[in-house]
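Reviewers of the previous submission asked for a worked example of the structure-prediction workflow described in the proposal, so we include one complete record here. The input consisted solely of the amino acid sequence. No template or homolog information was supplied to the procedure at any stage.
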Amino acid sequence: MENSKTQESAFNPEDFSIVPARTFDELTVGEVFRAPSRTLTDAHASAFQTVSCDNHPIHYDAEYAKRYGHEAPVVHGLQVLAFTAPGATLLPHYFGNVFIAFLELSCHFLKEVHSGDTLYSSLTITDLTPQEDKGVVTTKVTVYNQKSELVLEGQHKYLLKR
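From that input alone, the workflow returned the following structure tokens.
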């Protein structure tokens, strides 16, 4: 009993991590960080519509969408982009306390996404640019659907301490 009390008091939440943190210099070009797949539902689309305040009928009116050549309401592009959030992967856990800022992002929307589609996103380190006591990590971001179609591609840049 005494031994378990000693072990409990030795616990430090600051030492609790999902993966070991790494420094900028320990990252490598080509590393891939995947997010769990997710099937979008009407509830996801409705929740995003509420949060974004985007009330264009292309996102919720099936007849309107069909009238303009879409098979179904189109999921908000920004909602698809959200699937590339670094926090959807383990990447920020690897950054640990060296993370300074999310510097920029860009993307191209390549295919429509609809409720019922399953999305697979990943971030691949494509460049590591040292800058004295800091470094910029560039990642290519991709989102595929269940048909193996690339629906979004783009880039993120993060600033880390070295």
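The two ends are 43 Å apart (CA to CA). We consider this example representative of the routine output the project will generate in years two and three.
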